[in-house]
Design brief:
This protein has five helices and 17 strands. Strands 9, 10, 11, 12, 13 and 14 form a six-stranded antiparallel beta sheet that branches. Helix 3 packs parallel to helix 5 and helix 4 packs antiparallel against helix 5. The radius of gyration is 19 Å and the shape is globular. The mean pLDDT is 89.
Amino acid sequence: MECKVGDVVMPGYIIQEADDLVKESKKVVLGNGLRLENDSAVSSKSGLLCKRKNIFYVDSYQKKYIPAKNDNVIGIIQSKTPEFFWVDISYSELAILPYLAFEGATKKNRPEINVGDLVYAKVVLANPDLEAELVCVDSTGKKGKLGELKDGLMFPCSINLIRKILNDKCNLLHLLSKECPYELVAGINGRIWINTKSLRTTILLRDTILEAEHTAYNKMKDLVDKFAGELTGIKS
């Protein structure tokens, strides 16, 4: 069955819009809930078909993270081998992150990352029969926003919340940036890392973001006003 963006899809539905763009030689990325089957984009789970820029994905409530190619994830280094790191990405199996998958890394110049450290990485290989493989560089070999996450606070959340705050309809992060400076990285595997100038601000920011999961888009301003009042010591 064919469908378009905004439709509710079931496993096996063909994403005709994505196929049409490919025929026009335009770049298309298949995100969560989609796969390539017989040269066609096909849904692999139930949910709402969405599109952000050139990325098509299925928005559905998901408790367990399943790695997919091009996912950006926050990982925890679990152990090292002579060639790569073993990384916890909230999946049943550990992922591998080669030493050479960092900007400027060589066999002699390896990244100084230890067990327990956090990394923001991209999934480049996701196969049910193999370990997921990660990199900390983009297609040009530059790290961009990827790499080790130093200081700050990492906390778990639902995958649904990650998709919500990254949705173009959600202005939460933009509104929060007007109240205080902060750094934030969201991993589609249900982890968020934030860094601010003080621990108190970091905790308040974390609590506000977690509360956003059950807040309507048009109520985000009220949520941020509450955050601003608590930040200045004035309870709203």
